[in-house]
């Protein structure tokens, strides 16, 4: 099989889906399936090459991996370095540290593992602001190609075609089955990890392995298959969205569709679709598709970070800049390194991977060790953007501890006084720990506290949207927490009241019943309102200004009256509950503060910093008194 222009056209389709999706064209709401298209193409081409060399008797692992290095790493290193340098001027210190760690992960081809671990927590950074999050797909591929050549070499040597095919099918079904399961119950790992993505690469690999046994289709059949395949990809790109169970069976259909288009290209004479995919425009975009994929996302992520809206004009500017950088890097980085012929495999790997990779790792670790080069900021800003100021920082032992033992609970307020109640909830309780600590100290009482991200203290159930926050073990813990809390005289509950159902409970009636059970146990129930929810773009704009050392005291967010909608619903239905509303001190009738005394009050668009939580309590106490003095103790 020689060079196929139509496959370059498929690459163009894949990268354009991803590019326009990330650039903010909402019509292409499933544009992320472009990555799945890439996986199938990659699996087909790389397996075809390995199979050809094995059958000809000249395959070598050194030759294979040196080609991978020349193809992948020079540009990856260049984009990573450029992104890191840009980040120094754009990001806050803790975000520079995070970016630096992601550079190390990209160099070591473990980005998917890194982001699966670090984007699953409630206070993990939003993936839309992570400049190198897109390198997860490269890591999946490289991990796949660590295993695939070994299996192909061994199976070719010791097994006939039948057993080889049987083992391949078993592996494919196992990966697909796990992907279906994980897409339902463990979405983060389903999205990022190799076991749930391997079947996509195997669709292309399987096509390559049985290529010679497939009948050559006629022109009409080829055209029908091409039209059908592209139609399926288009439909999925326009209809699949972030809420879909993905990858799983949802990803299987577009993957099979891409394989169908590739197979259609086996025909001796192509039709209109092959002509279209093989035309100069798509072929050119396909050739620079790797550069386009790597360059576009850092641009978008930095725009998100700075709170800039992706208007139509900005979106087209992103696309133009991505193409400009891609053409530049294709000519000056990709092509020159791929043309290197006279280096041995060890020399190629040492000069193009080990050396530059080590330099990048050292640079990144330097940034991590210096706290994101925090010395660039004055002392006040360093404290403001330090880990110690993150939500619940002082109370880490009871925030996502999933334990009701002594070492998994926190003490708030006057620790020398008898325990007067319990404060519990989801991440809202986590960021309100300092707020409640100030109120409890002022009232001269002690509260025990526990907070768990994504887990309101009501009988909630698992749901794909909440992933590993609601595993069976954690739901069992939550049931125990509810029973534990029912034994206290005063129960203070802080949750994300805007999230509705099925977050708070399966139905409104179940939510009412859950609150009433606390009351029937003899407890005084206090519901703590969520702080005003701000638009992500606006929060990012405020944060960007503060990182620059600018005065942010004039920034106010628009009052979002839906922030505590379901708290109001509960209060109307169950009037005996008491409400503590920090927004009384945070907000005016139509706007809410984003800072106190010139310092950031918010950690992200929904949660307060430790400073913001504590300062808000002091303002509240001064203006409205202390609701905890009426706890009956």
Question: What do these coordinates show?
Answer:
The protein is an alpha/beta fold. Helix content is 59%, strand content 6%. The protein has 25 helices and 10 strands. The strands form 3 sheets. The protein has a 6-stranded mixed sheet. Strand 9 (595-596) and strand 10 form a beta hairpin. Helix 2 packs parallel to helix 6 (136-158), helix 3 (61-90) packs parallel to helix 14 (289-305) and helix 14 crosses helix 15. The termini are far apart. The mean pLDDT is 92.
Per-chain topology:
Layout: H1 5-22, H2 34-56, H3 61-90, H4 93-107, H5 111-118, H6 136-158, H7 161-185, H8 187-192, H9 194-209, H10 219-239, H11 248-264, H12 272-277, H13 280-287, H14 289-305, H15 312-338, H16 345-369, H17 379-384, E1 410-413, E2 419-425, H18 427-431, H19 433-443, E3 446-451, H20 472-485, E4 490-494, H21 508-520, E5 524-528, H22 536-547, E6 556-558, H23 565-573, E7 578-580, H24 583-586, E8 591-593, E9 595-596, E10 599-600, H25 610-624
Parallel strand pairs: 2-3, 2-4, 4-5, 5-7
Antiparallel strand pairs: 1-3, 6-8, 9-10
């Amino acid at each position: 099989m020689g060079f196929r222009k139509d496959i370059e056209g498929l690459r163009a389709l894949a990268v354009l889906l991803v590019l326009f999706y990330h650039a903010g064209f909402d019509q292409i709401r499933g544009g992320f399936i472009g990555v799945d298209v890439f996986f199938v193409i990659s699996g087909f081409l790389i397996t075809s090459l390995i199979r050809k060399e094995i059958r000809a008797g000249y395959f070598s692992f050194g030759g294979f991996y040196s080609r991978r290095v020349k193809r992948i790493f020079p540009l990856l290193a260049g984009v990573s370095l450029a992104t890191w340098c840009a980040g120094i001027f754009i990001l806050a210190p803790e975000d520079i540290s995070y970016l630096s760690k992601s550079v190390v992960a990209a160099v070591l081809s473990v980005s998917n593992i890194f982001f699966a671990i670090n984007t699953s927590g409630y206070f993990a950074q939003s993936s839309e602001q992570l400049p190198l999050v897109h390198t997860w797909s490269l890591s999946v591929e490289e991990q796949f190609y660590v295993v695939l050549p070994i299996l192909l070499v061994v199976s070719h040597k010791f097994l006939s075609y039948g057993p080889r095919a049987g083992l391949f099918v078993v592996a494919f079904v196992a990966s697909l089955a796990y992907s279906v399961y994980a897409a339902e119950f463990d979405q983060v790992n389903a999205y990022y990890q190799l076991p749930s993505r391997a079947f996509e690469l195997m669709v292309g690999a399987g096509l390559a392995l049985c290529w010679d046994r497939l009948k050559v289709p006629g022109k009409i059949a080829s055209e029908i298959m091409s039209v059908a395949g592209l139609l399926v990809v288009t439909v999925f790109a326009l209809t699949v969205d972030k809420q879909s169970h993905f990858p799983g069976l949802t990803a299987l259909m577009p993957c099979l569709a891409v394989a169908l288009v590739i197979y259609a290209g086996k025909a001796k004479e192509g039709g209109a679709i092959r002509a279209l995919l093989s035309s100069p425009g798509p072929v050119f975009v396909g050739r620079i598709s790797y550069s386009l994929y790597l360059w576009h996302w850092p641009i978008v992520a930095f725009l998100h970070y700075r709170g800039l809206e992706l208007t139509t004009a900005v979106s087209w500017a992103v696309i133009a800049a991505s193409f400009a950088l891609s053409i530049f890097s294709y000519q000056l980085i990709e092509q020159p390194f791929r043309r290197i012929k006279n280096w041995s495999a060890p020399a190629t790997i040492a000069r193009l991977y080990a050396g530059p990779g080590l330099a990048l790792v050292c640079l990144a670790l330097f940034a991590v060790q210096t706290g994101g080069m925090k010395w660039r900021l004055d002392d006040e800003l360093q404290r403001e953007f330090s880990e110690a100021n993150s939500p619940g920082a002082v109370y880490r032992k009871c925030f996502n501890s999933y334990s009701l033992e002594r070492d998994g609970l926190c003490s708030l307020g006057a620790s020398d006084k008898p325990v007067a109640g319990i404060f519990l909830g989801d991440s809202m309780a986590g960021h309100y720990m300092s707020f409640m600590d100030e109120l409890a100290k002022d009232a001269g009482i002690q509260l025990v506290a526990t907070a768990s991200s994504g887990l309101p203290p009501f009988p909630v159930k698992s749901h794909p949207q909440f992933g590993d926050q609601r595993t069976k073990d954690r739901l069992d813990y939550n049931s125990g927490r509810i029973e534990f809390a029912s034994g206290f005289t005063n129960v203070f509950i802080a949750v994300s009241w805007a999230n509705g159902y099925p977050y708070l409970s399966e139905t409104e009636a179940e939510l009412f019943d859950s609150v009433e059970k606390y009351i029937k146990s003899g407890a005084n129930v206090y519901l703590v309102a969520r702080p005003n929810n701000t638009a992500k773009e606006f929060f990012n704009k405020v944060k960007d200004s503060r990182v620059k050392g600018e005065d942010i005291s004039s920034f106010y967010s628009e009052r979002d009256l839906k922030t505590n909608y379901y708290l109001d619903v509960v209060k109307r239905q169950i009037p005996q509950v008491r409400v503590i509303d920090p927004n009384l001190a945070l907000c005016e009738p139509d706007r809410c503060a984003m800072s106190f005394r010139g310092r950031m009050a918010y950690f992200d668009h929904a949660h307060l910093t430790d400073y913001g939580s504590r300062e808000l309590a002091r303002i509240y106490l001064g203006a409205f008194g202390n609701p905890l003095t009426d706890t009956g103790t």
